[in-house]
Specification:
The protein is mainly alpha-helical. The protein is 78% helix and 0% strand. Helix 1 packs antiparallel against helix 2.
């Protein structure tokens, strides 16, 4: 990597972080955005105001969506990344190959796999039964599954 290459990759890596948060991959997004914040501070490359607002809004969304400990872990992991690691993470093809489930969808799937009903999942997560039904339907569609049993099996294997 040339000396200018990490700086040239900064905004695309941040862009990938924004896309990750928008698509429900909150931890990945936080890691990438935190890595870029660290690089910007080190290299003294402040973002333009509109870009700073955009990345701050994404971090706020992720903070609201993740547990405090998960958010802090992702933030710490991102701050520890060097430019090469951040770029490799942003370009990770494995993340592109598999359907993206939001953190909330992953929680719902985990509880369904434990045998909880939609009403029990809703009570445990503090959301409506209808929202749980929607998550289950959307995940089954994304993964091309037709039954809850298949969904539970998928959860156990992933």
């Amino acid at each position: 990597m040339t000396a200018d290459a990490p700086r040239a990759a900064l905004e695309p890596v941040e862009g990938r972080g924004l896309v990750a948060v928008a698509s429900g991959r909150h931890e990945l997004g936080v890691r990438l955005l935190a890595a870029c914040q660290q690089m910007r501070a080190t290299w003294v490359v402040p973002p333009e105001a509109w870009w700073r607002r955009k990345t701050a809004a994404a971090l706020d969304l992720a903070r609201e969506s993740l547990s405090q400990s998960a958010f802090q872990r992702a933030l710490g992991a991102g701050r520890a990344m060097d430019a090469r690691h951040a770029l490799e993470t942003a370009l990770d093809q494995e993340a592109v190959r598999h359907p993206v489930l939001s953190d909330r969808q992953r929680m719902v799937v985990e509880l369904v796999a434990r045998g909880l009903t939609n009403a029990q999942v809703a009570a445990k997560l503090g959301i409506s039964r209808r929202t749980v039904e929607s998550h289950v339907h959307n995940v089954k569609t994304a993964l091309d599954l037709s039954t809850r049993a298949q969904l539970a099996e998928w959860a156990r294997s992933h």
